[in-house]
Amino acid sequence: MVAASEVSLVRELRLDSPINVWLTLSLLRRGPGDPTTRRDGNILWRTSRMASGPVTYALRQVEPTLVRAEAWGPGAAELLDGLPGLVGAEDDPSGFRPQHPVLIDAFRRHAGLRTPRTGRVLEALIAAVIEQKVVGLDAFAAWRRLLLRFGEPPPGPAPAGLRVFPAAEQWAAIPSWEWHRAGVDPQRARTAQACARVGLQVDRLATTHAADHEAVYRGLRSIPGVGVWTAAEVGIRALGDSDAVPFGDYHVAKDVGTALLGRPIDDVELAEVLEPWRPHRFRVVQLIRLSPFATRERRGPRMPRVDHRHI
């Protein structure tokens, strides 16, 4: 008898325009060792925790306008129902006018880049909290340790080492010493657990206010420890918000200013510089990150690395 978790559902999605699925979904990967993501040749494997339960899914880009998805587990049907949003098919860049030479070139090079919409607010929120005010390498390592320690084995024929994002109650129950062992300081641990305690509510936000991103952001910012940067990081991934700007990021203002104006700027000027590109402000940020011609400031102080396991 075949277990229910081994039975797969399949959906093929014909896109209206070419989309680079791997590049689009790279936003969801938290470092090269992320236990929720693995690329095997031309197949992208991922896990998630849907409202209906855990899911493993494999995406293959058959053609620039054709994606084949296979999913296993209790959340399989729900995942496949949301496939257009996940791969960025609901993101419309048609009104974007690059204007600046750096953006014109990057937009041409990465014409298939879209902003994904997972609908999984808590997944994006916990990961963003872990990344607050620390070097990316350290945040990715902490995320990996926590997922390997507390994530459950995924359903279906997933590659070895993949794990499913823990349920909200599991995050809320992680003891303080386990956060410490993972390299997460007490402040971020408290914030993550505050998010987990309202996990069901934050995931409902994306459904209840699907067309009102600001309502979702207000709800997120009402959680102690969640500010503008964290809410934007959630919006980019869970809501597919191509206009979300992670103000307060250590690099974004400097990189955007240096690429577009030839000098670093602060968040106040960043808001002014990006204003003409509404509702595509994050698209500008993303294209600058990808551009080989975006000059970035390389001198000056960098954010220090701190291993919180030894403090």
What key attributes describe this structure?
single chain; 311 residues; alpha+beta; TATA-Binding Protein; 5-stranded antiparallel beta sheet; 15 helices; 43% helix
Sum this structure up briefly.
The chain is of the alpha+beta class. It has helices at residues 21-25, 76-81, 83-86, 101-109, 121-130, 136-150, 168-173, 176-182, 186-197, 199-208, 213-221, 228-239, 252-261, 267-274, 281-290, and strands at 8-14, 37-40, 43-50, 53-63, 66-72. The longest helix has 15 residues, at 136-150.
**N- to C-terminal separation?**
51 Å
List how many beta strands DSSP finds.
5
> Mind describing the biggest β-sheet?
5 strands, antiparallel
Using the alpha-carbon principal axes, give the shape: globular
How would you describe this structure to a colleague?
- The protein is an alpha+beta fold.
- The protein has a domain at 4-94: DNA-3-methyladenine glycosylase AlkA, N-terminal domain (TATA-Binding Protein, 2-Layer Sandwich).
- Helices cover 43% and strands 12% of the residues.
- The chain has a five-stranded antiparallel sheet with strand order 1-5-4-3-2.
- Strand 2 (37-40) and strand 3 (43-50) form a beta hairpin.
- The protein is globular, with a radius of gyration of 19 Å.
- The mean pLDDT is 93.
Secondary structure: elements and pairs:
Elements: E1 8-14, H1 21-25, E2 37-40, E3 43-50, E4 53-63, E5 66-72, H2 76-81, H3 83-86, H4 101-109, H5 121-130, H6 136-150, H7 168-173, H8 176-182, H9 186-197, H10 199-208, H11 213-221, H12 228-239, H13 252-261, H14 267-274, H15 281-290
Antiparallel strand pairs: 1-5, 2-3, 3-4, 4-5
Helix pairs in contact: 4-15, 5-9, 5-12, 11-12, 13-15
